[in-house]
Amino acid sequence: MRYLFFPTRYVGRVTALTPQRLADWGIASLLLDADCTLKRYPEPLPEEDILRWLEQTRAAGISLALVSNGLGPRISRLAGELKLPFTARAIKPLPGGVRRAMRENNMDPKHTAMVGDQLFADIWAGNLAGIQTILVDPIHPEEEHWFTRLKRPPERLMKLPLKRDDLP
Q1: pLDDT at position 66
Q2: In a domain, 61, yes or no
Q3: Residue 24 within any structural domain of the chain
Q4: In a domain, 154, yes or no
Q5: Considering its fold, how many domains does the chain have in total?
Q6: C-alpha distances in angstroms, 2 versus 6, 7, 24, 127, 128?
């Protein structure tokens, strides 16, 4: 049961996921959570370093798609700006949205990872879908929904034994 909530990998930010590191881990496709993973919740777009990372990652041939619990119109606008396919209302931690995103984007589950900031949503959904999972620290947890804020204290405790893969 413990496995469901623990990621395959843990890094500080998505920008630590270099094409070389992803290749070393056997990852050719990333399913990306949006809020607090790529951008602050109230902001329409990610910060410049993440926008550059998205372009570099895409240019390296890594397939990218958004998978969010967010509502369709907001996630659709973000996906349009980022030129990424998306699955909104994914209902994570259920794995259906993750599986649908892989199927619709022709992603091989053996070489796909779900990337997100929440153990009880993103990581759990990816693990249930049978793919690799990569936890990132939330960009700005103080700006999240009340429901997510309730999950943060137990997530912080569960993260204590984890070691980040982007640190020496």
Answers
A1: 98
A2: yes
A3: yes
A4: yes
A5: 1
A6: 7, 10, 26, 11, 12
